[in-house]
Recover the amino acids of this structure.
C-alpha cells in the first residue's frame, strides 16, 4: 500500500530530523547569544573604557572573516533566504544556504554580540533554518519536497524556534518568504515549525520571549493611542527601512569610497562609534535590546527619552559595518523606545500597552509584514487582550510605511542579491520577479 511505502516514510523521517536539527541549532544559538551578551556586560562592568578596544576590534575581525571566507553571512540572513527561494539557480542557492554558511553565521553573530553590536539572532536563525532544510533537498535531489518549499519551511522553523512563536513562524512563511509566489508549502512548513518548536519546548520549556504581559487598552478610548502609535511607528519604520535600503546599495561620497576601498577600516570605525554611543548611554544601546525592553514592559525600569533614537543609531552602525547579524529584535527595542516616548504624552493610558503598540508599529513599518508583526508580539508576551489594538496599529503602520517606502526592506535587499547572481538562461533574476504586491506595479 502507498501509505506503507518505505521510501515515503524515510522522506518524512528526514524532514522531521532536519526540522529538529534546525530547532536545536536555533536554541544553541539563543543560549550562546545570552552568554555573549552577558560576557560583554561583564567586560563593560569591569572597565567601561575597554569597549573602545573590544568594539572596533570585534567589528573589524567579524567583518574581515565574513568578507574573506563567508560573504553570504553578512547582514540579516532573511534577504538571503528570500533570494534563494526565488532563484532557480542551484549553485546560487548553495552559495547562500549551506551548512557551512549556517555554522559560520552562528559563530560570527555571536562574535558581534560579544563585541557589543546592536544585532539580533532572529534574522540569522531564518538563514540557518533555511540552510539546514535546503541541505536536505540538495542531498536527496528534491525527492523529499521541492527546494523552494524546504527553504520557506526552514525559514519559518528558524523564526518559530528563535522567538518560541510557532504561529508567528507560519505567518512569516506566508507573508514574508512567499511574497512573490503563492504559498503552497503547507504540510512541509507545518511539520518544520512543529518539530522545531518541540525541540525548543524540550530544551527551554514553555516560555514567552518577553514574559507574560497583562497590559490592555480601554475601548474606544484606546483608538487615539493606536492611531498615534501606528502612524508614528509606520513613518519612522518606513523612513528607517528606506535608509537601510539606500545604505545597502552603497554609501555616498567619502564614506562610499571608504566602504569600497577599506571595508575593514569602516567596520572598525562603526565599532568605535558603537562603543562611544554605548558609553554615552550607559551601555543601553549594546546588544539586542531584549533586557531593556523586557524591564520596561514589566515596569521595573523606564526607558530614557533618547533610547529609541540611540538604539536606531546603533542598529544603523552595525548594518553599515557589514558584520553578520539581524535587525529583527533590535527593531522591537527601537519600537519600545518609540512607545515609551508616546506613552509620556498619554499619561492616562497604560505605558506597557503603548510600548507593545510601539514595538509592533515600528516592526511593521520596517518589514511591511503586519500579520507577522502583531502575531509575533502577541505570542512573545502571551497577551491576547491586546490582539485587536496590535492588529489595528500594525495595519495603520504598514499603510503609512508603504507611502514612504514602496518596496519592503527584505525584498529590496533580496532583489539586490538576485541582480548580482551569475546570469544564465535558467536563472531567475530580479528583473524577472513580479512586484511583491499588485499595487506596486503602478509605482
Amino acid at each position: 500500500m502507498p501509505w506503507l511505502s518505505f521510501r515515503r516514510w524515510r522522506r518524512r523521517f528526514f524532514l522531521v530530523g532536519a526540522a529538529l536539527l534546525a530547532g536545536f541549532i536555533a536554541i544553541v544559538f539563543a543560549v550562546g547569544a545570552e552568554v555573549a551578551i552577558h560576557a560583554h556586560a561583564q567586560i563593560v562592568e569591569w572597565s567601561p573604557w575597554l569597549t573602545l578596544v573590544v568594539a572596533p576590534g570585534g567589528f573589524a575581525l567579524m567583518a574581515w572573516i565574513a568578507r574573506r571566507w563567508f560573504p553570504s553571512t553578512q547582514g540579516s540572513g532573511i534577504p538571503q533566504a528570500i533570494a534563494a527561494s526565488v532563484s532557480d539557480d542551484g549553485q546560487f542557492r548553495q552559495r547562500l544556504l549551506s551548512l557551512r554558511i549556517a555554522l559560520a553565521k552562528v559563530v560570527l553573530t555571536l562574535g558581534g554580540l560579544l563585541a557589543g553590536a546592536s544585532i539580533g539572532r532572529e534574522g540569522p536563525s531564518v538563514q540557518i533554518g533555511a540552510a539546514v532544510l535546503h541541505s536536505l533537498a540538495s542531498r536527496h535531489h528534491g525527492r523529499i519536497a521541492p527546494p523552494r518549499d524546504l527553504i520557506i519551511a526552514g525559514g519559518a522553523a528558524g523564526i518559530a524556534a528563535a522567538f518560541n512563536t510557532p504561529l508567528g513562524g507560519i505567518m512569516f512563511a506566508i507573508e514574508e518568504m512567499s511574497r512573490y509566489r503563492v504559498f503552497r508549502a503547507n504540510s512541509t512548513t507545518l511539520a518544520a515549525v512543529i518539530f522545531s518548536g518541540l525541540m525548543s519546548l524540550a530544551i527551554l520549556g514553555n516560555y514567552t520571549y518577553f514574559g507574560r504581559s497583562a497590559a490592555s487598552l480601554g475601548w474606544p478610548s484606546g483608538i487615539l493611542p493606536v492611531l498615534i502609535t501606528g502612524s508614528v511607528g509606520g513613518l519612522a519604520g518606513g523612513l528607517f527601512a528606506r535608509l537601510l535600503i539606500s545604505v545597502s546599495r552603497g554609501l555616498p561620497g567619502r564614506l562610499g569610497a571608504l566602504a569600497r576601498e577599506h571595508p575593514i577600516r569602516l567596520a572598525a570605525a562603526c565599532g568605535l562609534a558603537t562603543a562611544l554611543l554605548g558609553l554615552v548611554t550607559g551601555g543601553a544601546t549594546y546588544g539586542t535590546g531584549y533586557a531593556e525592553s523586557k524591564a520596561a514592559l514589566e515596569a521595573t525600569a523606564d526607558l530614557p527619552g533618547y533610547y529609541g533614537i540611540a538604539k536606531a543609531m546603533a542598529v544603523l552602525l552595525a548594518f553599515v559595518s557589514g558584520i553578520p547579524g539581524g535587525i529583527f529584535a533590535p527593531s522591537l527595542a527601537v519600537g519600545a523606545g518609540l512607545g515609551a516616548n508616546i506613552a509620556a504624552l498619554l499619561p492616562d493610558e497604560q505605558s506597557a500597552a503603548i510600548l507593545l503598540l510601539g514595538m509592533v508599529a515600528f516592526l511593521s513599518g520596517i518589514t511591511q509584514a503586519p500579520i507577522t508583526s502583531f502575531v509575533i508580539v502577541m505570542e512573545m508576551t502571551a497577551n491576547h487582550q491586546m490582539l485587536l489594538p496590535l492588529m489595528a496599529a500594525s495595519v495603520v503602520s504598514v499603510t503609512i510605511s508603504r507611502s514612504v517606502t514602496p518596496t519592503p526592506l527584505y525584498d529590496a535587499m533580496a532583489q539586490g542579491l538576485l541582480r548580482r547572481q551569475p546570469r544564465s538562461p535558467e536563472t531567475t533574476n530580479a528583473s524577472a520577479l513580479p512586484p511583491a504586491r499588485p499595487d506596486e506595479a503602478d509605482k
